[in-house]
Design brief:
This protein is largely without helices or strands. It is built from two helices and three strands.
């Protein structure tokens, strides 16, 4: 199950579970669309893979399967 991480690892922008700005790689590294397109050129700095839009978990499932609250921020991304 996806963690739905709460922020962009590059700029620390908040990415709530319903964000259409959240992008993930196959390892769930999470970045905002602006960083993916502007700074990272669609290549994950952690694993080298590409990105896809993160799916939005239905509200009806969030109470049983909540999004992660652990923030990951790497300033040198």
């Amino acid at each position: 199950m996806l963690e739905l991480r709460p922020n962009c690892e590059c700029c620390d922008k908040d990415l709530p579970p319903d964000s259409t700005e959240a992008m993930i790689c196959s390892f769930e590294c999470t970045f905002c669309r602006g960083c993916v397109e502007g700074k990272l050129n669609n290549q994950c700095p952690n694993c080298g893979g590409g990105f896809v839009p993160r799916p939005i978990r239905p509200d009806s499932k969030l109470s049983k399967y909540p999004a992660s609250i652990k923030r990951v921020h790497t300033s040198d991304s």
